Amino acid sequence: SEPQExxxxxxxxxxxxxxxxxxxxxxxxxxxxLGLRHIEVGVFARERNLLADHDPxxxxxxxxxxxxxxxxxxxxxxxxxxxxxHSCDWYPERWIQMVICLRASTEALYDRLEQRGYSSHKxxxxxxxxxxxxxxxxxxxxYPNIPVxxxxxxxxxxxxxxxxEVKRLWRSxxxxxxx
Length: 179
Ligand code: ADP
Ligand code: MN
Hints:
With 179 residues, this protein is α/β, with parallel strands linked by helices. The chain has helices at 23-34, 41-47, 65-78, 106-115, 120-131, 134-142, 156-178, and strands at residues 13-16, 37-40, 51-55, 60-63, 81-84, 98-103, 148-152. A five-stranded parallel sheet has the order 2-5-1-6-7, with helices on both faces.
């Protein structure tokens, strides 16, 4: 007979999107309301000394991705994790059961990134990525077996509606997972 396909004990979720679309705010609230563990991947890597070279153009650090994956493995196996990062093409597909891509209008994103003090280079790069749907397409290509849910996240009202929608979908996923 076919070997049983590997899966985590409980499902896991990816929340992705261009920097500034609201991943961390969204993930924090969602994790609290669903009793999940929110992992900001960049912070997780920094806390474990898994950052690599500094990229002066992006003013950001690369991560030792293989080492980050090794550290994540036992957590992902238990499940109930929300992975929050602007890229999602480097996790094993089997870890992930739900993929959310947050989106923001150019107006909303511009204001948020400017407030964050981004250089004009970095600001333009991220605005262009959002307009070109770079992260959404990466998510679709990385998880061909899961529908990637795109949620418009321009204001607080949309955020609340999105959280409620994701909570409903998550609970139904958990029920199916248990059977
Ligand atoms: P990301 O983690 O995707 O970079 P953050 O969650 O850090 O984004 O949010 C970026 C900025 O936008 C923060 O100042 C945050 O308060 C604000 N923000 C996030 N979501 C919303 C929203 N739905 N409406 C208005 N402002 C938001
Ligand atoms: Mn963030």
